[in-house]
Amino acid sequence: MGKKVIKFMDTSFRDGFQSVFGARVLTDDFLPAVKASVEAGIDNIEAGGGARFQSLFFYCGESAFDMMDRFRAEVGPDVALQTLARGINVVALSQCPRDIIDLHAKMFKKHGITTIRNFDALNDMRNLEYSGERIDHHGLNHQIVISMMELPPGCSGAHDPEFYIDRLKQILAAGIPFHSICFKDASGTCNPNKVYETVKAARKIVSEDTTLWFHTHDTAGIGLSQNMAAIQGGIDGIDLAKTPVSGGTCQPDILSMMHILKGTDYTLDMDYKKILVAVEAFEEAMKDYFFPPEAKMIHPNVTLSPMPGGALTANTMMMRDTGTLHLYADVIKEMSEVVARGGFGTSVTPVSQFYFQQAYLNVTQGKWKKINPSYGNMVLGYFGRTPVPADPEIVKLASEQLGKPVFTEDPLDILEDGIPKATKILEENNLPVNDENIFIIASCESKGLDFLLGNAKVNVRKISDEKPEEKKPAKAAAAPAAAPMGPRNYTITVNNRPYNVSVSEAGGVQAVPAAAAAAPAPAAEGEDVDAPTPGNVLKVLVAVGDSVKKDQPIVVMEAMKMESDVKAPADGKITALHVAVGDTVQTGEPLVTIA
Questions:
Q1: Within the chain, how many helices (H) and strands (E) appear?
Q2: How buried is residue 528: exposed, middle or buried, by Cβ count under 10 Å (0-12/13-18/19+)?
Q3: Which of 103-117, 356-370, 512-526 has the highest mean pLDDT?
Q4: Count of CB atoms within 10 A of residue 404's CB?
Q5: Is pLDDT of 518 > 60?
Q6: Which SS3 state, helix, strand or coil, does residue 443 take?
């Protein structure tokens, strides 16, 4: 009997980009490497979805639909192109109503996609029923997912082989249409034996012609072992990537997997010489990109605090943007408790972001002092059922802070249609009303609108964009000594507060607040409202002179993909604005002044 050929999907151009560069890669730069991959015989490629939808609009100044069109044109009609969807979230971070879920499948089919891999982070199979039906309806292959991870130490009750097989039985009983089943470990933390036992048990339940797939990340250094365990358990296909993105936070490497399969009953059936040519083309395409060191490292601690490879670098990129990268280790450590008390939703987007955001708040504002709205909605049931009930104390805190009761019904039933709302926004801004623009607004919200209005900012980190170190001017001949002068007075501003500075002839400096100087600049009366956390100013909702009520939102900040309202501490009038949209602020910096 010949060797079993293990199918594989090349994830370099989606999960690779997301896991290494926070999904911030320009289309012009990588298309030559796509062509080289096809010439090497790779006929199954991940081409978008996940964070590689929003990121094109948020960071690259490009349309994800245009990128998919160019991808399809580059590979031709026969190569399978796959994207990733998050059940009722599709490619957004919040739930999408039924009309937008349908539009997602329709648009991705229109723009050249073959297969949509579809998961729910909570493994609430209700969240895959409608999305899976619409994917199938629009003529796409539906790869339905069971999401996996390792629980923090001391936790039990879910995420073992019995739990996953129960979810598989629920899929089969619900009659959700699918063409293949994927076991997805986004954090790369599952013990390989658990992978083996899960796949082996699943193989006995499904029909012989059912394709089973396994996906993992190499973040903890065990990705190749997990793949081998899945293959020995009866898996048909795995996900692999090419250098320079393979390994670390991304998928295991194609060539490494080929090597491990030597002398076994399995093969990838690829020509390594052709793969090497594709690797060289890809390395050339990516040579100017900044590789975060944490993307290429092994992180054994994620087995204790599961952080997906695809989210790890996205988060560290954002922490670099806000000057908070020094907090990363503390946030990862805090995630263990956040996962343990949150009901064991799988640490994969969007739930991994909920975990990270809550851990971030616990580190920056004190443990459980503030509940992140998304994390709170999850433990209250508004995203679906968590695998086990969340900690009652955390549920109580979430209910009190968000002003919401526990919810047990279908999340889709409480969502308003999205197409009318998006259409209204387009019309108000004199933008074309078409399916693509409607979906962009629905899934990307204010940043989607910025893109369509031409206001998107490109934020892609490249080596060539780093500012060169300024050269010191050549030492000039000594100039005649200047005539003695008296002290010079200057006004400088530090953290939006003016100071008068007096510099003496001898170099002595005396600084006093400008308000205390002899001729002070008029200062706004009232109480400063400070930034509660580091972040970016997304919206300023008030103007000088506006009257506001206590708890009225006055500024919207964004950090770690999380939008949060800064509210007025009391009734009053806005006497000063200290920030504008697009500013980056640190904790404690004044945003507005209220009298």
A1: 18, 21
A2: middle
A3: 103-117
A4: 15
A5: no
A6: helix
Q: Got the DSSP string for 181-195? A: EEEEETTS-S-HHHH
CA distance 466 to 486: 41
What DSSP string describes 108-166?
Answer: HHHTT--EEEE--TT--THHHHHHHHHHHHTT-EEEEEEEE-PPPTT--SSSSHHHHHH
Alpha helices in 366-434 (DSSP H): 373-380, 392-402, 418-428
Strand partners, 52: none
Find out whether the peptide bond into 244 is cis, omega within 30 degrees of 0: yes
Q: Which two tokens stand for residue 136?
A: 């199938």
Q: What is the pLDDT of residues 78-116, one digit of tens each?
A: 999 999 999 999 999 889 999 999 999 999 999 999 999
β-strands 535-540, 584-585 pairing: antiparallel
Q: Ranked by mean pLDDT, which of 348-362, 492-506, 514-528 comes out on top?
A: 348-362
Among 76, 77, 79, 98, which Cα is nearest to 87's? 98
Q: In what order do the strands lie in the sheet with 553-559?
A: 562-567, 553-559, 535-540, 584-585
> How far, in Å, are 65, 319, 586 from residue 454 at the CA level?
16, 26, 28
Amino acid at 545: G
3-state SS class at 344: coil
Report CA 204 to chain centroid distance, whole Å. Answer: 35
Q: At 388, is the secondary structure helix, strand, or coil?
A: coil
pLDDT tens for each residue of 193-204 = 999 999 999 999
How far apart CA 213 and CA 6 sit, in angstroms, is 10
Categorize the per-residue pLDDT at 314 as very low, low, confident or very high, splitting at 50, 70 and 90: confident
Q: Which pair of structure tokens corresponds to residue 400? A: 């009190």
pLDDT digits (tens, 9 = 90+) for 268-293: 999 999 999 999 999 999 999 999 98
Among 436, 461, 437, smallest CA distance to 450 is for 437
Mean pLDDT of the chain: 89
CB 87 within 8 A of CB 132: no
- Is residue 1 within 8 A of residue 232, CB to CB? The reply is no
Q: Are strands 553-559 and 547-548 parallel, antiparallel or unpaired?
A: unpaired
Residue type, 243: T
Q: Are 308 and 217 in contact (CB under 8 A)?
A: yes
d(CA 201, CA 575): 66
- Best CA proximity match to 563, nearest among 108, 92, 193: 92
Instruction: Kindly report the pTM of this predicted structure.
Output: 0.82
Residue 54 contacts residue 444 (beta carbons within 8 Å): yes
